[in-house]
């Protein structure tokens, strides 16, 4: 299977995971530089899932980092071709 197809599929899966877990909304706050909204949403998300905010932030960062890495790699490959 073509490597790019696999990466696009994985990127879609990561985005879906962020969305299904309610974490994609955090990305919206970051894009608009709404750090107060980000903090409030992260706090409420952590409370909803019965965990510390630091753990919720780690989970978000892990998903977000993977998603951004995939997007970056995919765009670089696209423009190389």
How would you summarize this macromolecular structure in one to three sentences?
With 81 residues, this protein is mostly helical. The chain has helices spanning 3-20, 24-31, 35-48, 53-80.
How is the secondary structure organized here?
Layout: H1 3-20, H2 24-31, H3 35-48, H4 53-80
Helix pairs in contact: 1-4, 2-3, 3-4
Question: Could you describe the 3D structure shown?
Answer:
The chain has 81 residues and is an all-alpha fold. It has 4 helices and no strands. Helix 1 (3-20) runs antiparallel to helix 4. The mean pLDDT is 81.
Q: Tell me the helix content.
A: over 70%
Radius of gyration equals 15 Å
- What coarse outline follows from CA principal-axis ratios? elongated
Number of helices: 4
Q: Largest sheet, if any?
A: none
Provide the residue-averaged pLDDT: 81
> Given the helix and strand composition, which structural class is it?
mainly alpha
Number of strands: 0
Give, in order, the helices and strands: HHHH
Distance between the termini: 17 Å
Uncertain regions spanning at least 5 consecutive residues:
none
**Proportion of strand residues:** under 5%
């Amino acid at each position: 299977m073509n490597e790019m197809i696999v990466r696009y599929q994985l990127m879609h899966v990561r985005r879906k995971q962020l969305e299904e877990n309610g974490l994609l909304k955090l990305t919206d706050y970051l894009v608009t530089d709404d750090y107060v909204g980000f903090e409030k949403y992260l706090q409420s998300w952590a409370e909803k899932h019965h965990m510390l905010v630091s753990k919720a932030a780690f989970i978000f960062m892990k998903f977000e980092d993977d998603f951004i890495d995939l997007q970056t790699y995919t765009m670089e490959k696209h423009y190389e071709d």
